[in-house]
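Budget justification note: compute hours in this period were largely spent on complex prediction jobs such as the one shown. Inputs:
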Amino acid sequence: MSVVEVAVSRESGVVLLGNPNVGKSALFGALTGAYATVSNYPGTTVEVTRATLALDPRRIPVVDTPGAASLVPLSEDERVTRDILLSGEAASVVVVGDAKNLERVLALGIQVGEMGLPYVLCVNMMDEAAERGLAVDVDRLSARLGVPVVPTVAIWRRGLPELRAALKSARPGGLRVHYPEPVERAVAALASTLPPAPVTPRSLALLLLATDEAHAEGLPVPQPGGRAAVDQARQRLARELPEPPGYAIHQTRHALAADIALEAGAAGPRLRRARRVADRLEPLTTHPVWGYPILAAVLTLAYLFVGRFGAGTLVGLFEAGLFGGVINPLAVAAAERLLPWTLARDLLVGPYGVITMALTYSLALVLPIVGTFFIAFGALEDSGYLPRLAVMVDGLFRRMGLNGKAVLPMVLGLGCDTMATLTTRILETRKERMIVILLLALGVPCSAQLTVVLALLGPLHPAAFVLWGLVIVSVIVLVGRLAAAVIPGRSSDFVLELPPLRVPRLGNIAVKTLGRIEWYLKEAVPLFVLGTLILFTADRLHLLGWLQRLGAPVVSGLLGLPPEAAAAFVVGFLRRDFGAAGLYALARAGRLDSVQALVAAVTITLFIPCIANFFMIVKERGWRTATAVAAFIIPFAVLVGAGLNALMGAVRP
Amino acid sequence: MSDLCLETPFACALCGLRFTHGGQVCASCPITQGCEELVRCPRCGYQFPRGSRTLAWVQRLWRRLRGAAAPAPAAVESHPVQTLDCLRPGESARVLKVSAADIPMLMKLSQLGLVPGREVRMQQSRPAAVVRVGETTVALQRAVARHVHIRRIA
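Corresponding output:
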């Protein structure tokens, strides 16, 4: 897609641009209110959020771009951000940054100014800067950059009216960066050969010289000369400069940004620094000794909240109380009075009924657990603890051909493996993405499944839960190590910024949790209904008995489970928690003893990913990989289950 | 990867050159995993196993218990220009030069503030190094820290 095509296809408006994790999305929400639409940027899977903003006399469109450290892209996200700016969609730009890290946002602002796009600099998180005794001289910044500068605290909606007002006086600023002489020469030569574009030729020439070939698509090509002319200019420049051209350009820009930041006081002498508890706590969370008890405490708290309160108290209330005591008896009574046909009655309230099975499983059994998990996970995300986890596990993950950063998609996988598969993109190499996708599909139980497993093992001795955890973790580590040896490619180095620890805000967690619950209801409940219908049909056609006999050698023989468990494994492919819930129902009916429950929990945890996860793997890595992953996982899960069964058989109580 | 800087400098078994690091065997080699235990003399290219880490730790502990000053770090500190992985927790330094092999890594370190002239403070060196650069906290692997050349600030 060429730059010009996009330019005509959209009405121009405000583009929100900023470094990652500077509260840009909070600002977007506060500026535009509700009704944002999220869509994939054409040709990519990067999500871009759009909404409108009331600005007298009309509403204008606003785009929230993916967080970018620079407009010379190093990732697909950054490339999308660059392409949006180049597309001509930006009538004006709001450059959002963290007041504690002025240099970084200034580097971004300078680039926008170079493009000739009118912009406003929004210095967000002023409260955190003040807490740390950092002053920001807004007027001086504004004078140096030549654009309006607005201090804000987006989460408390401070400074927003001023930002709206400043939008009207957005300007390019006209700050000129003086690059080393060879760069200036190359830029001048290249700029004169570029076709007309919504941004300045100088900025395009700089982008062409600095951008890696991998992200060059989407940039205009000089006429005459084409890509070859750019390559030639880059090579000449590389010979003339002591460092690579991209780095030299980047350094010059950053040096100027650092200079301005220093002048504006952000890096200057400290004011009174407030004593923050977080200052004491932050080093402890990654401490080689204290980090581990803290990790254990965090996990225990999460377990108590989700495993005990959610899976115990709430499920009891919902399943036994609401559904078992009220809804299901009412539905059965109503069906018996209103529906004369046995078939229709069974369809709704029979053993494989939509109400008695699909809705009871999805709403009474899984929803309370998933809900509490989302709350706990949202709090963890907002606290800034998760990146610190990456530091703690870096050594272990290195042995699996990964680095600590890979813990982020893995932890996210505890929420939903499908979403987590998508986020493997934050990993740098193909090898790392492959390993994490495999481990997610194999061993990381998603929230719904995790909690049904908790419910399955809950009534047993705590040792069962510990054993389950040990088996799963060792399988992950073992398969990870094997995969690291088998999958070709290289691993990347570990560099990660640690955000400050913050006290999560309740409002924010509530909004996130509700969003995720809505997503769960939309995605999971229809699949539960579909799975129930399949089971219902299979039951009617007596396929279930046939399936159970077919699966008996494996299910009963190898795993030592009752033959009915075969159905649970089949529907487990629709959603893993559905399968686990089926086993849970068996356990409730007293059909599983403690060894059987443990074997069943381990096997269903390792068993094939749900259908959504499978298709996500297809989407990310293609059919071949997805089939290979499935072909490995199914026999492997049964193998581990059988091994455990044989081992536990010796100590069966 | 262990902390080379805290250990006794290696003495080449062949030519006798004393060196601290920079002599690792080919980082890009596919069998680096097992190779990590090998060091190579920067002068004569002779390769030899680096010796037991556990033993070195016991030796250091023994020396400390006896109250004797550990001679090795002193010898290392006398070298003014070092890399970031040599800093011990609590120490500060000024960045002189960043020399990562690939440009994306250079850019990334620079975006995080690891650029010549900046002051950095080592917060911890294990399990991964964590450094403070201004208001930014950066966690990095020791192999990456080795690309950042620094001068210690007293």
